[in-house]
Amino acid sequence: MAETLAPAFTGADVPDMAALRTCVHCGICLPVCPTYRVLGEEMDSPRGRLYLIRAAAEGRIGLTPSLTRHLDLCLGCRACETACPSGVPFGSLLETARGQVERQGRSTTPRLLGRLIFALFPRPDRLGAALGALGLYQRSGLQRLVRAAGVLRVAPRLAAMEALLPVVPRRADVPVLTPARGTRRGRVALLTGCVQRHLYPDVNRATARLLSLAGWDVVAPPAQGCCGGLDLHAGRLDELRLRARALTAALPDDVDWVVTNAAGCGSAMREYAHWLPGDAGVARLAGRVRDVSQLLVDAELPLGRLGATVTYHDACHLVHGQKVRNEPRALLARIPGLRLVELADSELCCGSAGIYNLLEPAMAERLLAMKIERIVQTGARIVVAGNPGCLLQIAKGVRERGLDLEVLHPVQVLARALDQGRSFGEQDLGR
Questions:
Q1: CATH number of this structure's domain 17-103
Q2: In the chain, N or C: fewer CB atoms in 10 Å?
Q3: For residues 208 and 240, is the Cβ–Cβ distance under 8 A?
């Protein structure tokens, strides 16, 4: 008789057995899983990973290197949740299983790189300083020399990080208060984010301007920190809770909605109550989180004509995490002259997945190649996505292939269409 081990998961935040047992092994999730589509391996499908997590929970296997590797290869895109007829909460099961692996010190994530990422990315102050230095690296011409010399070839993950960098913009903070214009509808708080505020400040400023035109007073507290989304996806659940409480304290409580323009942030914030049960303040915040497209979709905006062919990529944590699919498309379709072309496999992950493209650059590149191929097939000249990670990843693919394509957030396209389709410049952003 085979020996039964003790359950591999112990203490707090163990995968929920009742949730694991809801999987009926039908396999409907397999075709929508990015890693299964690339590798064709059962254990790199949602069904296979659930089998491994349940086996570990029941003491039939331990936290082996093989198990942790299959968990690490998952993008956490949650496409399987959308497809699943049984309602398996794959995202939270994956996050608790990863949390157990992290807690027991058996992760296959490179320790040094992981420490660097989590010491930098969720800290807007540190990230801003680092990006300021990287901007100088670009402007000085050093980047061209480093790339020409092939210095980074010996460090694939570092090379992947460097290749993602767009031209680092000058710092341009969103105003602390942007008053409503026209008929006032209420008051919202804007999450400025970490990567968003430093690499895509125009997205935050366009978000505030559009919400203002839609009748909302927009408050953007400068002291707000990270939402904890990267921590959550990596299974760093204690860190997520600390950041959730800090963000709740930093954002005003007297608002109608908390607006996000980054899919991963919005998804994580909507799930705060699950990870911090009994915290009334956090639960109130989580219940008021909305993507910017949800607040703009029914607004009267003075959109001018914009003659362009556009395609839309569904950011995973917007379409699967927040179930926001129609609103961005409806907004784009309202722009006079704009032709919206559907993207085949629009919901297939582009390979960004938070920091996945830094930790698993080879798999991320294969997914990116699939995404770029589908985009080229549309004939569009503008690719739109509602998440900074997707913008960085797709723009990287566009640059490397020398394609004549713009990669924009929906609010950037909307802002460009304001005022009779004038160019998306300083006047449009109210600078």
A1: 1.10.1060.10
A2: N
A3: no
